Structure formats: structure tokens, C-alpha cells
Amino acid sequence: MRRRQEELVMAQTFRAAVIQAASIPTNAAASAQKAAALVQEAAQQGARLIVFPEAFLGGYPKGASFGTPVGMRKPEGREDFRRYHAAAIDLDGPEVQELAEATKATGAFVVIGVIERDGGTVYCTALFFDGERGLIAKHRKLMPTAAERL
Hints:
Elements: H1 2-12, E1 15-18, H2 28-44, E2 47-51, H3 75-87, H4 94-106, E3 109-118, E4 121-130, E5 134-140
Helix pairs in contact: 2-4
């Protein structure tokens, strides 16, 4: 009986990795390649669950005001937003495919924050990858903060 309990405990334990690395904010493709390499590295060290920071792909707009002081909108802010939108990723794009391939190769479960582009809107989204099935779910942040509300 005790041996069976130990076997059950062993079957339920796993190693998780929390990735604390910087992305390349203006280059989603390079960030996806970096993320895939970090997935490989963490999996080689035995991680079965790998979690990345918010907005690892697509660039977090830290410090960006998008030229929007209260009551007005400046032209340079529109250009800032255009660049932010252009740096975001599409869920059917190559960055998501790269991560799906990395999770398939390792069998890991990966959660990664992205800036998702959908039409003219961007969302701060968490993507969930299963090693066997690829991208299985997403969760969009419903209440954006600060200038993200624009």
C-alpha cells in the first residue's frame, strides 16, 4: 500500500520553469526564436510546465503614451501605435507556429504572454500550448491598463 502511494506521488510531481528573460520588443520573429530556444533549454533540464512573462512576443509598450495627453491626440502618438500594432503577432502567424513546434519537440506545456493583433485592435493575451496538441487556448486581458486602453 505504501509503495503504491509513493508511486502516485511520484507520478504527480513535475518540474516547472519560470522564464525570466527579456524579449526583443521590436522583433516578434526573433523573440519567438528566443522563446523556442528557452523552451528547449528548460525541457532539457526536466521542465514539463514552462511559463513566460506577459507580452514576451509582440512588445510591451513600457513608457509609451501614444501621444495622448488628456484631451488631445498627437500625430507622433499615432505613429507610435502604428509601430506597436505592426510588432504584434497574429495567432496564425509564424511566431505561434515556431512555439507550437518547440512544444511538440519537447512535450512541454507552455504559457506565454503575447501582444495579439486582431484587425485594428491589439490584445494582451496569454497563449497555452500543449506539447501534443499545439496551441490549445488563449486568454485575452479584458481590462487593459493605462495607454493600452487606446
